[in-house]
Queue: 4 jobs
Job 1
Amino acid sequence: MRRRIAAANWKMYKTPQETVRFFDKFKQFPDATDHCEVVIFPAALDIPAAVQSTLETPIQIGGQNIFWAQEGAYTGEISADMMRAAGATWVLVGHSERRHQVCHETDAEVLKKAQAAIAAGLTPVICVGERYEEHKAGKAHDVLIRQFAGGIAGLTEEQFAKIVIAYEPVWAIGTGQTATPQIASEAHKLIRGEAAKRFGEEAAENVRILYGGSVKPENIEGLMREPQIDGTLVGGASLDPDSFAKIVQASRPLS
Ligand code: 13P
């Protein structure tokens, strides 16, 4: 049985002080982490405050990005080992805002970062997803197959067993236009199918695939009715403790 995950990607929001305030409030919600894993991805500079605020709780902390080299002359970059040493145990890799919008990360870089994360003992959440034009042109599944082949497929079986995948259609991110549970579920099925071809049925059955893109307390229930959806990666609606607590509470296992 795949354990569900409620994950919060805070992007470039919150200072360390605001991070502490978030957790002071969020930790008051009683069953915040009973029935699923809760992982928060704050900005790198907020990680020490987040780790400190969540000591002796099951809440896990992750980084939003790492660089693939172990160390060296890479001004401004952060290595997987540094991230781990700061107390993070997870990391996002290949978020669409890093692939398309600004940083133009390639599938090959995504693979190198995922490998570096695993080597450092971090769990990478590898993000895939099609852009609006690709969605409109009916090319979503081709894009997912290409991103899988260029990135995730390059992992070994042992590495694949350590990752989580996030399907985040770019047209649904920050637009309020969530993919319907059906669209998300079909994309997840396709990704799981690619995983089965490359890594075998059992590995594909075990990998967790999250959905991200305008997830809110108002639409989480419908998404969580889909057996293919193993949790969510939430941007905007995760910044407020009340709102994210509602999402966590709805991220129950299917009965
Ligand atoms: P929103 O929930 O704000 O659409 O962001 C989704 C996302 O990019 C999570 O990684």
Job 2
Amino acid sequence: MRKQIIIANWKMNPRTAKETKNIFERIKNASKKYQRVEVVVTPPHIYLPLIKAGSRIKLGAQDIFFKDEGPFTGEISAGMLKDSGVSYVLIGHSERRELGETLETVRKKIYQAASKGFRAVLCVGEKEKNQEAFPVMVKEEIISALKGVPRRLASKTIIAYEPVWAISSHSGGKSDTPQNFFEMSIYIRRILLDIWGKNAALRIPIIYGGSVNSKNVKGFLDVKGASGVLVGKASLNPAEFIKILEIADKK
Ligand code: 13P
């Protein structure tokens, strides 16, 4: 049985340690019931030592640096993340790219995360809605990020398709459609096939992110070949996020 991967990306929230612990504990307790879901919570780095992964809940980081240690003010290493119980890392989120993260940096981070044994979640997505053609930007982001990453690390990679225009902070909560996600996931798999060949490409999970909530999640999880969702805003509301887990568990 392949579990649905449901990742809570808390971004730069919650405001306090107390709130962080409360939300996490509620999600952690609820997660015990769900055997068919891989629940991952990615808080800001500073909160990682306050919360503990469990048998049904994993910790993720929102970023990683590509060097092991040294004079890199403000950065967080793979070793530090491992030491904090992290097993997933988000890389190349559009909000980081908007702040200046380059294709080259994303590539180095993917390699670092996957080669150090994390599940590396490569975030890709076009900025504008484009109904005419498949976005070149997504292709470029994938090809560039995976350049030089050996096939043996394919099993460590997850692709999160996050159309930037459908992220709640841009769209006011309006998501993409499951049909578009379906078409994009086929397009993405074809790109992966060219890079790593059929066997690896077929096994890489592709998940959707962008205004996911308890009302629309089923549509995205029902998409053939899809493996889960990346949830931003709705993951900060424990009742709402637990509903998402419940729906995913029934898949
Ligand atoms: P929202 O769920 O708030 O739209 O955020 C999703 C996201 O950032 C996908 O990567």
Job 3
Amino acid sequence: MAYEQTYLMIKPDAVAGGKMGRIVSRLEDTGLKIERMELAQLTFEQAAANYAEHEGKPFYDSLIAYIVSGPVVKMVVAGEDAVAVCRKLLGATNPAEAAPGTIRGDFGLTLDANVMHGSDSPESAAREIGIFFPA
Ligand code: IDP
Ligand code: MG
């Protein structure tokens, strides 16, 4: 067990679809602490920095266009094993494969608009928090 911070982001489809409140409730239900939360329009630069590992892949351009297509909710969530706990709560990347009870499984339908982003490691979390909540 380790105290960690993770970066989470409610994606444009879920914000536009009125799912913010229910998603935030699920995060609070875990007992993890929401340390920062802000509704924001991402810049192209922030989007590209967040998804740098995917540059060159066939879905990269549409991924960037999608994530800047409308407001998102940026969050820093903290607590014991926050990274893994949140990834588990999000479920599999493809909502069609995500288990019922997970955020992607319950609120999403397609891989390109899959409701939420969550850091995949403490190192990614530190990098992503630096992009979206610069000191
Ligand atoms: P993750 O969000 O579960 O960490 P990644 O593999 O890091 O998944 O992919 C980042 C995001 O890119 C995904 O959340 C999804 O929205 C999108 N994505 C991943 N693979 C594909 C694909 O094959 N087609 C379309 N979009 C994809
Ligand atoms: Mg990822």
Job 4
Amino acid sequence: MRQKLLPEIETFLGRQPLPLFIGGAWGPAERGGHFEVRDPGEGQLLGRVAAGEAVDVDRAVRAAQTAFRSAPWARLPANDRAVILHRLADLLDRHRAALAQLESLDVGKPLAQAAGFDIPNVAQTLRYYADLAVRTRAREPIAVPGFEAHTLRVPYGVCAFIFPWNFPLLLVGWGIAPALAAGNTVVIKPAEDTPLSTLYFCQLAEAAGVPPGVVNVVTGLGETAGAALAAHPGIQRLSFTGSPEVGRLIGASCGRNLVPVKLELGGKGAAVLFEDAEVETAAQALAGAITLNTGQVCCTATRWLVQRKIWDRFLEQALHHLQAIRIGHGLDPESQMGPVVSEKQRQRVLGYVQKGEQAGARLLLAGGPATVPGHEGGYYVKPALLTGGPDNISAREEIFGPVAYLLPFESEAEAIALVNRSQYGLANSVWSADLGRANRVAEALVAGNSWINAHNLFAHGIPYAGCNLSGLGGGVLGPETLLDYLRAQSVVRPRS
Ligand code: NAD
């Protein structure tokens, strides 16, 4: 069943294949290739998109270099850049309905989530970093006896970005807003599954007056366009969000060129529920967390550690909420959980449940494929709950679907040890009425983020990053992230 689309989305998708955006101009890939993008809710073709390759990446990097060197963007006072970025944020707000529809269609996420969180968050990110850049001193005096000195903060040049498919535009915002506010130019390689909102964003950037070459987008496959961008000697920085496997390749490429790299990678987050937690609230929140974006959230709670005394009560509540979830097409207003992004992802999720069971885990909620009437070609799965030993494959590896693994524990020390045996280190949460204990445990968990009595907490100004297998290089969303995109230079003379 083809969904009814807004006229601007029909027009946008009518241009086939959707072109690359390089140096302020829209055009095909040099060698004419393209790839297909599907609506995961239907399994049907949404459109064809230009498949950029190394030659296109090279054109984009050169355009970004030219824009950095000759256009005024890097030399504009932060205030003037902020005016343009605010205008872009306002345009995002004005086009929220269209962008949300496109994002919902491309990723499969419920429209209300795209319209209520993803898209407005991008506008807020632009405003946050634009304003922060205005308040950041370009020249900072250094008080050292015998010297007249200051630190100069200048943008690096061309910053490259490679993004995954789960929060396409949200992550573009978190990634490029600080780089742009600092005066850099950017080249973006969106995920091949979900490139649409990034291209639409470029239309708005043009309309907002972002100069040509400041934002460039090369759509294409990871092994071609992505690899070429990571290996390009003309980039000054690279930020990658995606899997640890690809992160390693990107890190190696950047290492060869001595390009600083930021890696935001996967996770296997835990939630630790103590017996004094508000069980009903926690069960509802965790069922919401594991089904948010159909479980395709890097930082979500996937291992639920439950103190034995509350195991039965918690499980009953969790099952109730998971079984009640309404699965459907992202554009259906009744849907609470959409499809996963692709058939490949569906097989991955179903495969992990199977492998977990084969390795000795017990199914508390069976999961499996879901069929949505009228949308039989979509990539739907049901939520699943497993329990078993802590070394089961489903307890160790990132599944990236609505599948949680329950583990019982007795003591605080045991819970901490169970969480910290993961190789990942992105985000965990602690649930307890005893805030002293909650803080103590939160601080003992090895990860970039520890949340208390909630999971998936984000705010501009609170840094979000991973450690160990979950990433390196600084993270996003914090005030420090702006400084990641400003090169510090000491200017010194002897004081006479
Ligand atoms: P992925 O690593 O397969 O792909 C990410 C991007 O890398 C895509 O644009 C892809 O085209 C590109 N790519 C693939 N092979 C490449 C190569 N050889 N060289 C250069 N680029 C290449 O990840 P995915 O499946 O798109 O996303 C899921 C992963 O992303 C999960 O592990 C998830 O946890 C992680 N993620 C992390 C965060 C975070 O903030 N830490 C946020 C979202 C997603």
